[in-house]
Specification:
mainly alpha
Length: about 70
């Protein structure tokens, strides 16, 4: 349960740092805003899918993993 919960947090933090950092290339502002959003959105989508897969196939939930 830890990787699908921890990965989005780390990727969003790195994405936020990349947004506030200087632009790496000379591109239009829309491209510079959308380019850093791709990796966090894809990692979040994969993590949600993985959590759902664990719940449906194996019956593992976040609450169950926490012992509640």
């Amino acid at each position: 349960m830890l990787p699908p919960l921890l990965a989005p947090v780390l990727v969003w933090a790195m994405g936020a740092l990349q947004v506030f950092d200087g632009p790496p290339v000379a591109a239009p502002w829309t491209v510079r805003l959308l380019f850093p959003a791709g990796p966090p959105l894809s990692v979040t989508a994969l993590s949600v899918w993985e959590l759902r897969r664990l719940r449906v196939r194996y019956g593992i939930t976040v609450r169950g993993a926490l012992g509640r």
